[in-house]
Specification:
By secondary structure, the chain is an alpha/beta fold. It has helices spanning 4-13, 20-37, 48-60, 62-65, 85-91, 104-117, 128-131, 152-159, 177-183, 185-191, 228-233, and strands spanning 73-77, 96-101, 122-125, 141-147, 163-173, 193-202, 208-216.
């Protein structure tokens, strides 16, 4: 299915060593993704080499810049087809992962993936702003990740409420990160976050990528996140 030697090479560029079990799991994940995508809109990326680079390697790139301690609790907000969360879990099965999405049929797909790959994670069917207000999930995670979901000011309001004080929200972004960072100053101040690093790189000829790390330095006030309509209407 996928070229696992290509995946191993691209992952190693980010300091990620994938064993045979991990490579087999990625291969099976790609097969399930392509098969299910024929009946459910999961991704526009369906060529095996593009899946390896634009989905798998792109997700794994975060491991070069973010130090995830053994057994860290991680929530992938707006996980979609499982990126970056499932890819991170394949590389790091020790992680305590929660996959959160607003569309239940995507979570049904992801639960099937987890079953087929013999991996464990929690799937949660909630909108991000609902999850961020729910005491089961609010400020419960060491790390929140989000990839290709919304602009950074909006992502901060969605994701920082999930993170414990001292933890991190990690945004995986394409280009235009500098502008979004500038627009996020007020949101970060209100939500208790502080940008600690931005790493920019070229994804093997597929364009610029940015990993933005935001540390949770104080509790998020209980009035955030706001209702979805208010978030959409005006950024913080």
């Amino acid at each position: 299915m996928i070229d696992t030697s290509l995946l191993k090479e691209k992952a190693s560029f980010f300091g990620v060593s994938l064993n045979e079990t991990a490579l087999e799991r990625f291969d099976k994940y790609a097969q399930l993704l392509i098969r299910t995508n024929k009946v459910m809109n999961l991704t526009a990326i369906t060529e095996p080499e593009e899946i390896v680079i634009k989905h798998f390697a792109d997700s794994l790139s975060a491991l070069k810049y973010v130090d995830l301690p053994f057994g860290a609790s991680v929530v992938d907000v707006g996980t979609g087809a499982g990126f970056p969360g499932v890819a991170l879990l394949i590389a790091r099965p020790d992680l305590e992962l929660t996959l959160l999405d607003s569309l239940n049929k995507r979570l049904v797909f992801l639960q099937n993936v987890l079953n087929e790959l013999d991996l464990k994670a929690q799937t949660v069917h909630l909108r991000a702003e609902e999850g961020g207000r729910d005491k089961l999930y609010r400020e419960k995670y060491d790390f929140a990740f989000s990839r290709a979901v919304a602009s950074l000011p909006v992502l901060c309001e969605y994701c920082l409420p999930f993170v414990k004080v001292g933890g991190e929200f990690v945004a995986l972004k394409a280009s235009s990160a500098d502008g979004e960072i500038a627009q996020s100053e007020n949101a970060l101040k209100l939500l208790g976050g502080e940008i600690i690093s931005k790493n920019t790189f070229e994804l093997f000829g597929r364009g610029e990528r940015n990993i933005i790390r935001i540390k949770k330095i104080s509790q998020t006030p209980t009035k955030y996140p706001r209702q979805a309509a208010k978030i959409a209407q005006k950024n913080l």
